[in-house]
Amino acid sequence: MKLIKLDAIDSTNDFLKSMSSQDELENFTVVTAENQTKGKGQMGAKWNSEVGKNLIMSVLVKDFLFHNEEVFNLSVVVSLSVLETLKSLNIPDLCIKWPNDIMSYNKKIGGILIENTLKSDGRIVSVVGIGLNVNQTNFDELPRGSSLAVISGKTFDKNALTLLIAEKIKEKIDLWKTDSLVFWENYFNSLFKKGVPMPFKNLQDKNFMGIIQGVSPIGRLQVLLEDDSVAEFEIKEIQMLY
């Protein structure tokens, strides 16, 4: 597993995508940075991190996705990899807020951004960006944010955590062919607020009540509505109000 450490970069995802387009990089190559000036979240949202305090990493994943209908499988694998790594560190009350925010005690402690590139030969090459709040303790401007240090009262070795997560992703990808149904079941069972009546807001700014039922094979959130129908939503089509 190749590890590239940077002091500062605009985006570890962009850096790794650029490298992968020019060289035949080793699968599971990891890029980390102490500071990221143009961090991204889902749908282009900005993601900011206190310098030197948090984990900023991107992982190259090849030879896992082969069809566009499969892309959410990687979200399942990566989300569970992060969750299981944190459980091994005794971080409590962990869950996944669809599609792949990492939560503890209703607070967001991390997020995942996966960017896929279709190569000319039909291969899908993925860059998995992971941002995890580790040793940052000031969240005055992020009332819904927290960190491993705040939750546990301890500081953590970011380098060790990077390797643990990268190794867990590789391990789960190796197991996917035989255990994919188990992975999906674990993902469903780990969903934030699954089965609980919750208020939501749609793209028209209309509030409504619903109950999360699960996630479709292509990654759409399935919500039971008040008329007993089940609607499916894409990322950014729905916002949970919690």
Give me the secondary-structure topology.
Elements lengths: L2 E7 L2 H11 L7 E7 L18 E7 L9 H18 L5 E4 L3 E4 L2 E12 L5 E9 L15 H5 L5 H32 L7 E6 L4 E9 L5 E5 L4 E4 L4 E3 L2
Parallel strand pairs: 1-2
Antiparallel strand pairs: 2-3, 3-7, 4-5, 5-6, 6-7, 8-9, 8-12, 9-10, 10-11
Helix pairs in contact: 2-4
Keywords: Ligase
Protein name: BirA family transcriptional regulator, biotin operon repressor / biotin-[acetyl-CoA-carboxylase] ligase
GO molecular function: biotin--[biotin carboxyl-carrier protein] ligase activity
Question: How does this structure look, described?
Answer:
InterPro entries: aa-tRNA-synth_II/BPL/LPL, Biotin_CoA_COase_ligase, BPL_LPL_catalytic. This protein is α+β, with helices and mostly antiparallel strands and 242 residues long. 31% of the residues are buried. α2 (71-88) crosses α4 (158-189). The chain is globular. It folds into 2 domains: 3-189, BirA Bifunctional Protein, domain 2 (2-Layer Sandwich), CATH 3.30.930; 197-240, SH3 type barrels, CATH 2.30.30.100. Helix content is 27%, strand content 32%. The strands form 2 sheets. A 7-stranded mixed β-sheet has the order 1-2-3-7-6-5-4, with helices on both faces. It has helices at 12-22, 71-88, 148-152, 158-189, and strands at residues 3-9, 30-36, 55-61, 94-97, 101-104, 107-118, 124-132, 197-202, 207-215, 221-225, 230-233, 238-240.
